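Notebook entry, structure prediction.
Reason for the run: the old model in the group folder had no record of what sequence produced it. Starting over properly, with the input documented here first.
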Amino acid sequence: MFKEKRKLITSLIVFFTVCVLIISMVQLMPSARAAYRRGSSGSMVTQIQEKLKSWGYYNGTVDGVFGSRTEKAVISFQRKNGLTADGVVGSGTLKALGLNDSSASTASNDVALLARLISAEARGEPYSGQVAVGAVVLNRIEHPSFPNSLSGVIYQSGAFTCMVDGQFDEPVADSAYKAARDALNGWDPSGGAIYYFNPNTATSSWIWSRPLIVTIGKHRFCS
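New structure, fully documented this time:
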């Protein structure tokens, strides 16, 4: 009986020791969240720059590229807010900025989807024309006549010819990613257009009735 109790006590000690070790290892493990530092790029860097700029820490271009000016702005922000001033945007700095990795993932998906549409619809067009196509998509989201989400607008039946002619599935041009970010950041060369078309290929008489706002490259942008 004594031996059995001793075995039980020994087993419990081993069990609790293992539990303590596991908890300690979990606490010491680095955060799964990404850290953004000089050399990083992408939609989250764009969001970081936008936040820093709106609060007066950053006066550079919001381009989604984490350069020396962004690093200096991050350090200033960190010092002001009692954070480790290392110029690296980890989970603590992201939280202080009001950002998180889930929002970064959503934003990244939006850029990728919009870039694919831009590339398919405006490949070979002037850069401002590519941004304008992206702006039209975003303008539709705000318009009561269209779906109120990016995917809803892009996948709306009959909205874009690239969805039926296979162009949407072609490789995405590098410029389209930058154009998507510029459009998402508010640049609208279309002047608020919700339609565009190529007059050389358009077969609908209705689209010609839409009031013209601006012509960029081969596309007419209309209200």
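Summary: Strands lie at 195-197, 212-216, 219-222.
The old model has been moved to the deprecated folder.
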